[in-house]
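Morning. Coffee machine broken again, so started the prediction first thing and wrote up yesterday's gels while waiting. Chain of 430 residues, entered below exactly as on the submission form.
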Amino acid sequence: MTLFDEHPLRQALNDEVHARPSIPLRGPTRISYLAFVHDEGGGDKEHRHLQQLARQLDIALPETRNGHLLLDAGDFRLKWERHTEFSSYTFLRDVGDDEPEASTALLSVPAAWRKDIPGKLMVASHVAVLSAHTHPAADRLEQLTDPDKLAVISRFAEGAGWIFTDFQIHDGFSRFTVIDERLKRRQAGRNIQRLLEVETYRTMALLAFPVAKSVGRLLGQAESELANLMEAMGRADTPGDERDILARLTRLAAEVEQSVARTTYRFGAAAAYYRLVQQRTADLRELRYEGFPNITDFVQRRLAPAINTCAATARRQEELSARIARNSQLLRTRVDIALQQQNQELLGQMNRRAKLQLRLQETVEGLSVVAITYYASQLVNYLAKGAKSYLAPVTPDALTAISIPLIAATVAFSMHRMRKALTTESPDTH
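Came back before lunch.
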């Protein structure tokens, strides 16, 4: 314990460096390796399945929540690891020098338990680790005389051991033969683990290749449709045509973006797996044996074109998405300009209507002045007739005639003030 306030993850992060050590070999060994792609809810299923094996073998129940364990069942050892997309089971069985090379580590594993491992099998490999004293590499090299048969020969760990394989699946398993010339126990374990990781990551990386071929067909159709839409955009004469092209571009953009969302993870995972393959093959520290490819040569020649295809498809997809976005923006700009022109024409028409309405209003106002003056002068006339005895010598008609201009001026001035008050904003209204 320290006197400092520790981060809660400090110990867990430090232990993670030591969490997945390689298993040291104890001489001639048979190794069987299985990798299963996860099913939905696979974590709980694997946990229960491993505990079932422990109860069946009458050993302590393993702790699996850290995503890895090493279980020693006596007749065999099991190393289990859970990764992001798959889980791996490595079974090891120590054998004598006289054990047949074709024997496997699975012979000691309960068959019913083995059959029910959760997930979909992706990688299955048998590795026979032999001693150079009883199985010298020279004897095996003399047998590899058929030029039509694929043979990959690797002198790994700077010549301390040999690997023979053809990377083919025989009876459901790929097979590797490792001849130990001067490997140390942990060195042998590390290199066998690297070999199995190369096989696993190579296969997982190739999951993206069928996706790339499928997406390639979609991209070819989308690129052809985009070219046709661009030609149609150049010939578009009316805003309606442009809006129709924009709708088709939007639909095409949605299809491409859906493809991007569906494949981005797969292509990214393929690139990550490929980098791991390159790292593991480099860690094998191979020496070339004349006339035969080694593991690095085989993997690079067979895997690199597929990964390059995936990377090219991903770039092509992103570039197509960007092109559609640029063309859509260009077309939207054209549509917006057309709409602005229509709006300007509409505003001009509204302005002309407003001027006509103003003129009509002024005409109505003039007629209103005449009407109000007429009715007001009639009132004056009625009043003058009623009071004519008091107005002598002015007659009612003369008084009415005199009042008409005064009434008209007063009405016109009042209406002018009223219109001015309505059209002029007063400071008190802010």
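Residues 426-430 have pLDDT under 50 and may be disordered. Going to sketch it on the whiteboard this afternoon.
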